[in-house]
Sequence to fold (310 residues):
Amino acid sequence: MNLARLDLNLVVALRALLEERNVTRAGERVGLSQPAMSASLARLRRHFGDDLLARVGGHYELTALGQVLLLRTSTAYEVVERLFASQADFDPGSEEREFKLVASDYAVAVFGAELARVVHEEAPGIRLRFVQTPPTVVDDTATLLSTTDGLLMPHGVISDFPATDLYQDSWVFLVADDHPSVEDRLTLNDLGRLPWVTYQRTYDAPAVRQLGMLGIEPRVEVSVDSFQLLPLLVAGTRRIALIQERLARLLAPLAAVRTVEPPYEAVPLREAMWWHPVHTHDAAHIWLRETTARVGRRMADVSEAPTADR
Fold:
C-alpha cells in the first residue's frame, strides 16, 4: 500500500462515521458539511471495496468489515494523534496536555494519587487520565502501549518494552480481625483449606503463581476486579486474600481485617512504568517518566525510613 497517496483526514472521517453510524452526525462531530462527509464516505467505500455502513430500515448498521474497522480505527486515530503531538521541547509549567496511564486500582491508589498531587503542584496545565488495565494486556501489549502514555504494572508480567522502576512492595495476607482459626500466622495447610477472595486477573500477582510450585491450589470462593474491594470481602468471614502491603495499610481503616505474613517467601512486587519505544525521545514523555521515577524514589525513601519518621 502506498501510504503517500492516503489522506489522513479520512481516518478522522472513518472513525466518526463508524461510531456515529450517521452521515449528518458524523459531519457535525468533525466540522464537515453533510455533502462533504458523504463524499468522504464514498472515498472510503471505494478504498475498502465495502459499503461500511449499510442501510437497514430507517438507520445504518455496520457491515462485517465496518465492525472490524471500528476498533482498529480508534487505535489508529490515537496513534496518529500522539505522533503529531510529539514535541522537541516541553515546559511543564506552561504546557496544557493530557497523559493517559493504564493502571490497576491498586497502582492508582498507592502511586497514582501521589503522582497526581506532584503534577498538580508542578504542572497545573497537565491532566492525568487513569484507565483500568484490560484483560488483553498480555496478549497485545504493543497495541495497548502505542495508544497510551504508560502502563503501570509490576515486573514479571510483560517484557521486551522499555520501563522505569518506581517502587517495591511486599505481599501480605488479609484475614478477619475475629477469624476463628487464624491467630498471628498462617500455615501452608491454611492456604489450601481456607476459602479465598482473589483479584480476577491473577497475572498481576506473581506471588500467587508460586503457590502452584508449592503444590497449593487456592479454593477461590469470591473473585473481584478490584484490589481495593478485597478487605470488604474478607471482613467477618473465614476467607483470606493476598494483597499488597502498601494498599493494605492504606485501606486498614475501612474494614475489620488484619494482615499476616505469607507462610512462604513471596516474591516482592516491583512496580514499573512501561511505554512504547515510539515515546522514548519525546520531550513531554521524558518529563513524565522523570516525574514518575522521582515520585517512586520518594515513596521508597519514606518506606525505608524508621517508623517514627514516617
User: Anything to note?
Assistant: The longest helix spans residues 64-85. The first strand starts at residue 53 and ends at 56.
